[in-house]
Amino acid sequence: MTTTQRILDLAAAAPAARGEDLVLLLHEANELYHQGLRDLHQEVAARLDGLATADLAFAADTAGMTCDASQDRDEVILLLTLVEWEMTPAAIAYVGMAEAAARRGACLIPEE
Prior knowledge:
Blueprint: H1 3-13, H2 19-47, H3 53-62, H4 73-85, H5 89-103
Helix pairs in contact: 1-2, 1-5, 2-4, 2-5, 3-4
């Protein structure tokens, strides 16, 4: 099963989950979300390997992720990765799941 499919499955199961079960679903989905982002980051870095940093910064600016002169190549590639990742079904499902869970009072950050 792919990361995307598992996140979609967790998001589909979340509305019926309550309390600690919902938090466990969120925890697993959060780990998968970050794993998917790491995997995509590697792919994007390899794909953009030959481009100059200025070209990467222009691409990031064009995508709506403003860069400044202090950002190095790796930071700009991460910004481009985030733009691409946020449009994936996995990321969209996770964000929707986390927002719906928060409205129900469940989140991964414990209250103080």
